[in-house]
Amino acid sequence: MQTEKWWQKAVVYQVYPKSFQDSNHDGIGDIRGIIQRLDYIKQLGVDVIWLNPIYKSPDIDGGYDISDYQDINPTFGSMADFDELLSKAHAMGLKIIMDLVVNHSSSQHDWFQKSLASSEPDNDYRDYYVWRDPVDGHEPNNWGSFFSGPAWTYDEKSGQYYLHLFAKEQPDLNWDNPKVRHSIFDMMNWWAAKGIDGFRMDVISLISKPDGLPDAPITGDSIFGNAGDAVANGPHVHEYLKEMNTKVLSKHDWMTVGETAGVTISEAQKYANKDGSELNMVFEFEHVGLDSNTNPALGKWSDRKAGLPELRENLVKWQQALSGKAWNSLYWNNHDQPRVVSRFGNDSPKFRELSAKMLAALLHFMQGTPYIYQGEELGMTNAYFDTINQYQDLETINAYQELVVTEKLVTEETMLKYFQSKSRDNARTPMQWDTSSNAGFSDTTPWLETNPNYQAINAKAALDNPDSIFYFYQKLIKLRHQLPVITDGTFKLLPDNEQDDHIFAYTRTNSETTLLIIANFTSDTITRNYDVPKAAQLLIQNYTDDQETTIRPYEVKVYQY
Ligand code: ISL
Ligand code: CA
Question: For the Glycosyl hydrolase family 13 catalytic domain, which residue ranges apply (predicted)?
Fold first, then answer.
């Protein structure tokens, strides 16, 4: 494996700027707030910061609707603030990767405004987006938007529909048009000249639409087809990424990660192949899809818990299949996912810290590039909002409207439970810095309610406690930097572990050493004998003593020999 690449040993910290730190009393996080907190990020020991979109945007979808790719949203600050953030981060040895959102733009983008202006052949911008005539007076096909409703919106003026896989304010760019690709590549090179360290590429697996835009398979009793399945890994996606690689990526010592919704193992081996002709790594979704509803009409909305056997089977499959062939991201959390300690761990006061550490260690000893989402290092929990009015996320609000109000597929009470498990806002509540008002995030009411548990769960308390989750993460990051086996070792599930309902146990081995990771996924006390060699050294533990064959609730231990 090409273990010489810097991003294979790196750990990424994801900052959601809107919720990280407010510096100017408007209740919204901003770039100067991030600058104020760089010391904190540095102390954790990570190598790279991934910034969610900070570009100019009407902010229909958390900034994933960009109206100017080369300007900063004034709510977040100015380009001068960004330049300062970048140079200060670099001076501290931190790299910054930006979010590249080019499957779609905002409907307010100049390109779309020009596209809208006329459907005449002399309008160069018409073909920047995907326009189609109605079919039998209806949408051109049955595709549903990820955010509810059809993926097509009708334009009275031209009598045509435009495609938007997400909100109607997020029209899909037409990647089959070489002018679109060149405009995007120019924009990327413009950011390169500023000295950024790479891009995380939003839904990059969706950019190439299937020829003829055929109907998608219907799942459940929806009238819409699943556009995600129909569009992911389209016919030209690898060709377009290779072109991007030639024209942009290969010129820079960057880290590139493709957010690849709907990626399979064999597709991942192409996106993130080790010849480096496309992207450095994929960011896949299978393990965070396991607890979706068993009724396909409800999609992700459920309060089901994924069991250890299915989660383990999935993680192990990816470890083994990409080994030596391609590179993966390791993550439990991001701005779209519920908090991991509430999802796969146990966020009760008794077990929150133990289970957060167990989950951290389990993931951080695997092969891949780990991502830590802001607040994960504190064991921040889901928001547990009680009413629909507390939510700000459009995916959540649209799902409520569609599934509760219009289609009446679920009761309000049930849907609110599902939101407590799965809403994206669970990850987006303000960062919990200290016990002062609004958790030290802002001195005025934040854009999204602060989780009241900030009195107990906050960065100040974590930094004051040598046993905190924060320092546990710090240790995991340090070990990754020190021990090559974490990057290059062979992954092996312990032979008797396949059916185990309680314990996840695996080894990583290279020519020098072996690591043995044993994690109890449950609140039960378990007896297992792993015949750990006498000379083995205990590298990591989340209890203060080691009882060898007794594995306590949410215990994790890592031995080296
Ligand atoms: O968030 C999801 C499930 O709740 C996913 O379906 C998500 O929409 C998908 O992974 C794509 O996410 C990315 O693109 C979206 C944006 O809303 C997300 O925040 C972003 O991470 C559209 O740009
Ligand atoms: Ca602000």
Answer: 14-428
